[in-house]
Write a structure and sequence with these properties.
This protein is of the alpha+beta class and 152 residues long. It has a single domain, classed as Sandwich (Jelly Rolls). Strands 1-8-3-6 form a four-stranded antiparallel beta sheet. A hairpin with a 3-residue loop joins strand 4 and strand 5. It is globular, with a radius of gyration of 16 Å.
Length: 152
Amino acid sequence: MDASFLKKVALFEGLTQGQLAKVASIAQPQQFEAGAFIFREGDTGQEMYVIAEGRVRISKNVPGIGEEALAILEKGQYFGEMAVIDDHPRSADAIAHTGCTVWAIERSKLDQLMFTDKELAYVLLWTFVRTLSGRLRETGDKIKAFFAISRF
């Protein structure tokens, strides 16, 4: 992976060129056709992904309703990061919305990298916290809107 591409990804923008090169060295490319599942809700996760090309849909299957798209992510965005933070199953489906190429970053390799480079770990962990906080706020707003609509 080209380290200059990673500089444009919000998760990695606070890293130095050397740190970006380290992250790039542990990322593995994967390609998916449109409609293919990258992972499913409930799967055990051991990696996170950065979108290099195409679009990825994050969704949940709502009983009695069907698929509810939570987000459509594009080039330069990342997803699945909860799998590199905790040991819980995947909380949603990730589906190739279009044909796409993603870079997979395994938890064990990222853990080793953060163990050996504490400054890199500090930057990444704070960015993870901000990302998860933002997504939690968005979810809260969607729940409020859902309850407001369901009253009618």
